[in-house]
Design goal:
3 helices; elongated
C-alpha cells in the first residue's frame, strides 16, 4: 500500500500535504501491524514451548507405575514456574499453566 502511494506520487500531480498525511497514516498502520505480528510470534513460541513441556510431562507420567511417590526433578521443572515463601508462612506455587496455589504452613514444636 505504501509503495503504491509512493509510485502514485511520482506519476500524478497531487497536494503534498495530503500525500504526507496518507503516507503517515499508512506508515503508522504498517508499524502497528509489524508490532502485532512480533507479539503474536512471541506468543506462538511460548505456546509451542508450553505444549512441548506438557507433552514431556504427560509422557513421564504415563511411564510411572502408579502414583508418583518420590520427588522427581524433571516433573517439578516441567510443571512449576516458581515458589514464593512469604513472611506469613505461606508457600505460593506458580505453575507454568498460569495457575497459582497457596499453602499455609503451621509449624508445630515437638
Amino acid at each position: 500500500m505504501i509503495s503504491t502511494l509512493v509510485v502514485e506520487n511520482t506519476r500524478v500531480l497531487q497536494d503534498q500535504d495530503e500525500y504526507q498525511s496518507k503516507y503517515q497514516k499508512l506508515s503508522s498502520k504498517y508499524e502497528t501491524t509489524v508490532k502485532n505480528i512480533e507479539l503474536l510470534e512471541v506468543k506462538k513460541l511460548a505456546i509451542s514451548k508450553r505444549n512441548k513441556d506438557l507433552q514431556d510431562f504427560i509422557s513421564v507420567l504415563e511411564k510411572q507405575d502408579g502414583l508418583v511417590k518420590y520427588f522427581d526433578e524433571f516433573l517439578w521443572d516441567t510443571f512449576v514456574e516458581n515458589v514464593t515463601i512469604t513472611n506469613d508462612k505461606q508457600f505460593r506455587y506458580f505453575f507454568k499453566n498460569g495457575a497459582v496455589a497457596t499453602l499455609k504452613v503451621t509449624i508445630v514444636n515437638v
